[in-house]
Design a protein that fits this description.
Layout lengths: L10 H16 L7 H12 L3 H12 L16 H14 L16 H16 L7 H8 L6 H8 L4 H13 L1
Length: 169
Amino acid sequence: MFPEMFDTFSQRARQAVFAARWRAGQRGADEMCVEDLVVGLIIEDQGMIESLFLEIHREHRLQSILPVKAHISFFPSGLAAQILTRIEELLPHSKPVSASRELPISSDLKLAFEAAKNFQRKFQQRHIAPLYLLAAALAREQSPAVNVLRQAVVTQEKVLETLGSEATG
């Protein structure tokens, strides 16, 4: 991935993308896709990023971990667990990819990142937050993850409504 691509991402958004990359590698993906991003967003949203960091640090014998900021979750925990399970069941699995190997970003995910930048501009924010990424992912009609989200009544409109109320609140 290209580090400069993430310069405008908030710390939480970067952590979600990191979780997406890690999970994509764990499942043996050839590239990181929208489904991986949604998985990463749910992991970050539910506060599971810290346990993911601890797992990675134990596995690779690293010394320090990044601080994780507390936040209010977008997804209710039960719903998040159901969505995460359903998406992970849909994704193909093979031999894990080394964390040190560069994992390309799918063209669909690149489009989602561009859409997230557009939401950032629309809401006049300095950084791309996780909900901008979620709203952008929800625009990717052909994504199986988007179908799972829609079946759970998670829509782009609801995400944008939340973003709008955060911007005015």
